[in-house]
Hints:
There is one protein chain. The protein is α+β, with helices and mostly antiparallel strands. The protein has two domains: 8-91 and 186-199, Ribosomal Protein S4 Delta 41, Chain A, domain 1; 94-180, Structural Genomics Hypothetical 15.5 Kd Protein In mrcA-pckA Intergenic Region, Chain A (Roll). The protein is 46% helix and 8% strand. It has helices at residues 8-15, 23-31, 47-62, 66-77, 83-92, 95-102, 108-116, 146-157, 192-199, and strands spanning 120-122, 125-126, 139-142, 166-169, 174-177. The protein has a five-stranded antiparallel sheet. Helix 4 (66-77) crosses helix 5 (83-92). The radius of gyration is 18 Å and the shape is globular. The mean pLDDT is 84. Residues 3-92 form the Small ribosomal subunit protein uS4 N-terminal domain. Keywords: Ribonucleoprotein, Ribosomal protein, RNA-binding, rRNA-binding. One of its GO terms (biological process) is ribosomal small subunit biogenesis. This is Small ribosomal subunit protein uS4.
Amino acid sequence: MGRYTGPKARVNRRLGFQVFENAGAVRAFEKKEYPPGMAQRRRKTSIYGQALTEKQKIKYYYGLREKHLRKYFDKAKRMKGNTGEHLMILCERRFDNVVRRAGFATTRPQARQGIVHGHFLVNGRRVDRPSYQMSAGDVITVKNRDNLKKFYAEVGAGIDQSASWINYDKDELRAIVTSLPTADDISLPVEVGSVVAFLSR
């Protein structure tokens, strides 16, 4: 699921949340907030179904495959504290998510594409892995090419950066991870407790 190419609006409608942020999917979701399919009376979702939906939110939102989500979950289990919070913080610390939250890109797929193509540097070194875990003090800059600087300056001009743990300088096209995200900084509203229970089965 790392590269989902199907109809994004249907996923948003099925999950009841805008996990895909491109303009077309957002407009479709706002126009039809009910799930896709023939209009009919729907049965109450089971506990299993609710947990599966919450898990799918995480996978689509962060662009994860099942094995990547399981890997994060196994790592979160070994950490002291709340497993669910650690799981979400690991997702938030992904390089592609930080690029999106900083304001370099309008969507996470766009951020991933730029990373894979080598458009960004971390602490002056090229990093082309979207899953790279960012740390406090890391500095993200755009590769020193005029066409890239112009492109990301135009993209960033229309984005309101809202992550309190990232300091983004639009003029310099530079973002600094000032601290690690906390549970309050998680950008995806999800019932992570049910996801932990689902993955623990």
